Amino acid sequence: MNEQTPWTSFDHFLTTTEDEPPLLDSERFVSYSLDDLYPEWQKKAHCRGTGLDNYFGNEEEQPTMSIKQVRNASKLCDVCPVFTECLTHALTQREEYGVWASTSGRTRRKMFTMIDNGSVTVDQVVEDWRNGRREHYTSGPLRGNRGSSRPDE
Predict the structure, then answer these.
(1) DSSP notation for the chain
(2) Mind listing the pLDDT tens digit for each residue in 68-100?
(3) Model confidence, pTM
(4) For 110, how many CA atoms within 13 A lie in the half-sphere containing its CB?
(5) CB 116, CB 110: distance < 8 Å
(6) Which residues contact 64 (CB under 8 A, 6 or more apart)?
(7) Distance between CA atoms of 152 and 25, rounded to whole angstroms?
(8) Of 16, 14, 76, whose CA–CA distance to 51 is shortest?
(9) pLDDT tens digit string along 23-57?
(10) Using CA atoms, how far apart are residues 56 and 69, in angstroms rounded to an integer?
(11) Dihedrals φ, ψ of 116, to 5°?
(12) Alpha carbon of 73 to those of 22, 61, 115, 131: distances in Å?
């Protein structure tokens, strides 16, 4: 049997690998599908199945995405039912690459800096971004100060 051939069923796996089924209830096979590796919300995302190149670029052709590519990817994000979950994930998991909830890696790096220096929280960023208050995160130079939106504590 060719190593590249995917198993079509558990029985097919057993016959092609010559493994035996568990004899006791305490013995179990651990079987994961690719879907098990992703959070439930990602299964509802509009970008699912559209191709990674649309959201992460093509490393062989162009290592970074152009502004036009980011804008095209963002069009689908803006109407996605899991927009909030996606942005929250991207910020809490510190996703540096690709388009997540209409944000580029550059925009998220600015958000990370603002979160790290205490000028905003993840929840504030998500709420602002979801409600169209994006200019604070996309315009002007990246600043390392605590910002003027919140007084020092």
Answers:
(1) --TTPPP-SHHHHHHHHT----SSTT-------GGGGS-GGGGG-TTTTS-THHHH-BTTTBSS--HHHHHHHHHHHTT-TTHHHHHHHHHHTT--SS-BTTB-HHHHHHHHHHHHTTSS-HHHHHHHHHTT--HHHHSS----S--SSS---
(2) 989 999 999 999 999 999 999 999 999 999 999
(3) 0.67
(4) 16
(5) no
(6) 57
(7) 58
(8) 76
(9) 666 655 565 666 667 788 998 999 988 888 889 88
(10) 9
(11) -65, -35
(12) 46, 17, 25, 19
For the record, the structure tokens of 7 come out as 């198993």
Tokens 């970008």 -> residue: 47
